[in-house]
Amino acid sequence: MGGDFVAQLSIFVLAVFVGYYVVWSVTPALHTPLMAVTNAISSVIVVGAIIAVMGSSMGWTKILGFIALVLASVNIFGGFAVTQRMLAMYKKKNKGE
Amino acid sequence: MVNFSALVYLLSAVLFILALRGLSSPETSRSGNRWGMVGMALAIVTTVVYAWWSNATVGLMDLLWVLAALMMGAVIGLTTAKKIAMTAMPQLVAAFHSLVGLAAVLVAAAAYTQPAAFGLLDAKGEIFIASRIEMGLGIAIGAVTFSGSIIAFAKLQGLMSGAPVVFPGQHKLNALVGLLIIGLIAAFCVNASPGTLLLLTLLAFAIGFLLIIPIGGADMPVIVSMLNSYSGWAAAGIGFTLHNNALIVTGALVGSSGAILSYIMCKGMNRSFINVLLGGFGGDSAAGAASGAADDRPVKQGSAEDAAFIMKNAGSVIIVPGYGMAVAQAQHAVKEMADALKAEGVKVSYAIHPVAGRMPGHMNVLLAEANVPYDEVFELEDINSEFQSTDVAFVIGANDVTNPAAKTDPKSPIFGMPVLEVEKARTVLFVKRGMAAGYAGVQNELFYRDNTMMLFGDAKKVAEQIVRAL
Fold first, then answer.
1. Rounded Cα–Cα distance for residues B86 and A86 (Å)
2. Which of B15, B50, B100, B224 to mutate to test the interface with A (most CBs of A within 10 A)?
3. Is the Cβ pair A78, B24 closer than 8 Å?
4. B230 chain-A contacts, CB cut-off 8 A
5. Among residues 33-92 of chain A, which lie with CB inside 8 Å of chain B?
6. In b/e form, how buried is each residue of B408-435, taking b as 16+ CB within 10 angstroms?
7. Using the 8-state DSSP alphabet, how is residue B313 labeled?
8. Which are the contacts of B139, defined by CB distance < 8 A and separation ≥ 6?
9. Mean pLDDT highest for which of B72-81, B161-170, B353-362?
10. Distances (CA, A) of B294 to B185, B334, B341
11. What is the pLDDT of residues B257-300, one digit of tens each?
């Protein structure tokens, strides 16, 4: 267990650094889509909700998991869709003029 | 199979990193977003398949439960994403954050009610101590994210006043609740009792409310970014509990992303993060009195026709949009004006201050929606040196971000804030409803300059009148 935790912590710390460098390279013009998409991907928490729903018989665990699953799916679908919608609006200067 | 699903989770995490990496330029952003979707689909399918494969008691009904929940989420999420106005994006993002926070709380609670299903029990049938800490932290951060985002949403949506709510002893109360939460997490590690966990959750909800109510509407960009960061840390916390690397990596990415955005916003306002968190800004205007004497100085006023004439005969125009433009829904009229000017051979570009709008990058999205090409839109550092060689700066719906007092008057509350140096342009056209001070409650010295012409009226109407006059 102890070794497991250290391994996870290592992954976490390294991922924070990856995040730091990747996010600084995001152009400021796309900061709003950045927030929308980070919001969508943080809903990968849905994994935990699925385990709760599938790994238990009817009871609190399943109900809590089910609600969490609905909430996280709203975020996943809504977050990616709204990001896509925003990104589709960014156009270079050309044709239309 | 365990190893296989762990590998797929790793792949999802990599795809999420690519999704963020894609945002370094608009051209790569769309494919990046698709990689993110693939990563999410992989994570979901793997989890379902693995749960099915590893547990003989899982039946068809369980699968239907999952599908039903996913469908409900899809319908709500997709309709919202389709209908939402771009001006309402900050509210939407705040609302989404609250959902992540609440989901984190619920997942942690579900794990607590049936730790065996999550593999959290040691040989004696008790929850691992490490898991207790992770669970407690996950719940606390998730709950703060939830209730904080609800308040941010209410303030942005106008459901409650954007004015800071302050009362005596506020910071002491917050500190006390914060300490209690830490104490309860420690207690939960020892006793793992449901009562402790419930009390911890309730107090964490409370501190979320308490932390955000004293923060004024103008500081919401920082707060929305901060809550973005929290939602990431909450996800990472749950990832530790579930021993899931996809969650840990994603949580870390989102957490640092939100933290960087908060930092950029704070820098854009020249305020420290602590200063924003302590709240109360935007309510009073102590220093306003200093410049108050200047109020009855004359200003030069012009009509839309005058503005059209000046801009038509200019070589270059820089448009400085602010949130006021978005409120008046004037972005399309402004785009038309820019097109008409370009037809006259005028070089048009846009200058965006980091804190224009109500969330990071908000103004860029609003301009993109009005079909303004993104290569005509520039950030503060990139365009500030251009003003001195520009004929006309056209300020619409912005105020504080152009105030030269931020550079010259150490007494001003916005002193030190980076500003767009519009006063260096040959002529400044300032579209404004009236002479009222900006969000920070500061008079703008710019109005009284010789090279400034005020265009009073609604941003959209003024822009439309100029289009007609061109």
1. 8
2. B100
3. no
4. none
5. 33-57, 59-62, 64-92
6. ebeebbbbebbbbbbbbbbbbbbbbeee
7. T
8. B104, B105, B108, B109, B197, B200, B201, B204
9. B72-81
10. 56, 31, 35
11. 999 999 999 988 888 888 887 766 644 333 333 344 445 677 88
Asked if residues B142 and A72 have their Cβ atoms less than 8 Å apart, the reply is: no
Q: Please give the residue that has the higher pLDDT: either A56 or A42.
A: A42
For residues B403, B407, B408, B409, the Cα torsion angle rounded to the nearest 10 degrees is 70
On the 0-12 / 13-18 / 19+ scale of CB atoms within 10 A, B329 is: middle
Q: What is the mean pLDDT of chain A?
A: 89
Q: Which of B219, B339, B400, B409 is catalytic?
A: B400
Q: What is the pTM of this model?
A: 0.89
Residue A7's SS3 state is helix
Q: What pLDDT score does B290 carry?
A: 39
Q: How far is A96 from A81, CA to CA, in rounded Å?
A: 25
B91 vs B132: CA distance, rounded Å: 34
Q: Do A69 and B39 touch (CB under 8 A)?
A: no
What is the C-alpha separation between B357 and B52, in angstroms, rounded?
47
Helix (H/G/I), strand (E/B), else coil: B242: helix
- Phi then psi dihedrals of residue B351, to 5 deg: -115, 125
ipTM given for this complex: 0.93
Q: Does B291 touch chain A (CB under 8 A)?
A: no
